[in-house]
Amino acid sequence: MGPLDRVEFIESRSAETPWLAIAGGSYRGVGLPNCIESGEAAARKVLGDFGIALAEDAEPAPRTH
Questions:
Q1: For a designed S-S bond to 52, which of 19, 27, 47, 62 qualifies (C-beta 3.0 to 4.6 A apart)?
Q2: CA 22 to the chain's CA centroid
Q3: 8 CB-near residues (< 8 Å, 6+ apart)
Q4: What are the structural domain ranges in the chain?
C-alpha cells in the first residue's frame, strides 16, 4: 500500500465515523493553503454530522497569507 492509498484508506474510514474528521499537512499537502482547506473540510464534515449545514454562498474568511 503506497502513501496515497493509505491516505485514501484513512480518509474513507474517518468519513464513515460520525463526528470524526482528519485535517493537517500530513494528508494532502504541507502548504498553508492545503492545511486551511483540510481544516475547513474537516469542520464542514463535523458540522454536517451534527446537522449544521453551511450556506454554499457564504463568504469565505479572508486569507492573510
A1: 47
A2: 6
A3: none
A4: 3-49
